[in-house]
Specification:
It is built from five helices and 21 strands. It is of the alpha+beta class.
Length: 288
């Protein structure tokens, strides 16, 4: 079991009978004793575990906008890491070796493995380059960029909430029945890249936010969308021409890998099932 799963397991045990600190700040994956001390401090303070992200709002850079509506979250338990508000209350990444705690954890499979977000009264439009970024909380293991804790996420978008187009996910490990921690074999997934952007401690302007080396996260270009059961030519053309309203994020372990006819494999050390969503930020938006 990796350090992050040990830490998060401790969190779950404590919050079940006590409370979660409402700070929702990043914690290093490399110091379990410090993590435990902070959690015990939170329990002693009497802070409630319910809706830990309530009242914490997103503050995306001028010229960008964070998804601010939870359209559908079947796994929302309104508590701890299972509070869907944590996916729309601002991005608070922790960098290469830290996993953010300001996240909403999806299930590994079934209905709870999917989260759908949108932007109030607006649609995300095609800008001819990166159009939006999904921020999860992947991080390097032992400082090695080629070995990461990752929870791969399939990304799709829609105008009507029925017909979705996405980015063809491809797992290219030599043995696709075995999970690899190498990011190079996970193509066109979110949940792969560490997050450097933190609206509280590493705020960025719009240009820097959409520079991968500065902000991290996983970027998506509407011009490349071509995947999904409802992604016929007319649907894809409409999304690429007029933009989209809904962003759907699904745990890869809840979807079938066409190469194996079984679900995509998952890291055995993952806590709570699926990806931990910190937020989604788009660049160009228009009124609906």
């Amino acid at each position: 079991m990796n350090r992050r799963s040990c830490f998060l397991g401790l969190f779950a045990a404590l919050s079940a009978f006590s409370a979660l600190s409402n700070a929702c700040t990043p914690q290093s994956s490399g110091d379990d004793s410090t993590a435990a001390a902070l959690l015990l401090l939170g329990a002693a303070s009497g802070a409630s575990a319910a809706r830990p992200c309530l009242g914490r709002s997103a503050n995306a850079p001028v010229g960008t906008a964070a998804a601010d509506i939870v359209t559908s979250a079947p796994g929302d338990l309104a508590s701890g890491f299972f509070d869907a508000l944590c996916a729309i209350n601002g991005v608070r990444g922790g960098g290469d070796v830290n996993g953010s705690l300001d996240v909403y954890t999806l299930g590994a499979s079934g209905a709870a493995a999917t989260l759908i977000l949108e932007w109030s009264g607006r649609r995300v439009t095609n800008s001819g380059g990166t159009d939006f970024i999904v921020f999860e909380n992947a991080f390097f293991l032992n400082g090695d960029s080629n070995t990461r804790f990752m929870e791969p996420t399939i990304v799709e978008v829609s105008n009507n909430g029925v017909d979705y187009c996405g980015w063809t996910p491809d797992y290219t490990n030599g043995d696709e029945t075995v999970f690899s921690k190498n990011p190079a074999v996970w193509l066109r997934f979110a949940g792969i890249t560490p997050v450097y952007y933190n609206q509280d401690t590493n705020n960025l302007n719009a240009a820097a936010l959409f520079t991968p080396a500065s902000a991290g996260g996983d970027a998506f270009d509407l011009g490349d969308a071509n995947f999904g059961s409802g992604c016929a030519g007319g649907v894809r053309t409409d999304i690429q021409t007029n933009g989209f309203v809904y962003a759907k994020l699904t745990s890869s372990s809840g979807r079938t890998n066409p190469d194996t006819a079984a679900n995509f494999v998952q890291d055995g050390g993952a806590f709570g099932g699926g990806p931990d969503i910190d937020g989604v930020i788009a660049r160009n938006l228009a009124a609906r």
